[in-house]
Amino acid sequence: MTSPVWRVSGRSxxxxxxxxxxxxxxxxxxxxxxxxxRGASPRRRAMGLAIAATANVHxxxxxxxxxxxxxxxxxVDLQAP
Length: 81
Description:
By secondary structure, the chain is mainly α. It has a domain at about 30-80. It has 2 helices and 2 strands. Strands 1-2 form a two-stranded parallel sheet. It is globular, with a radius of gyration of 13 Å.
């Protein structure tokens, strides 16, 4: 039995890596490396980095109030909801 695919407003789920065309925007590994270079821990941000990378590679804003993303403000389009 296959697991269900959830759709929002009739749209397909977004991929963070697999189905994304070539992009110059950093993906999960690139964002984790940036976080590490900037002196923060990517480990405690693993799920957030996956969400940020998904928004980033699709050119979407990341709507968040989480201050953990501030370290990526110059790379990811962060917006307050």
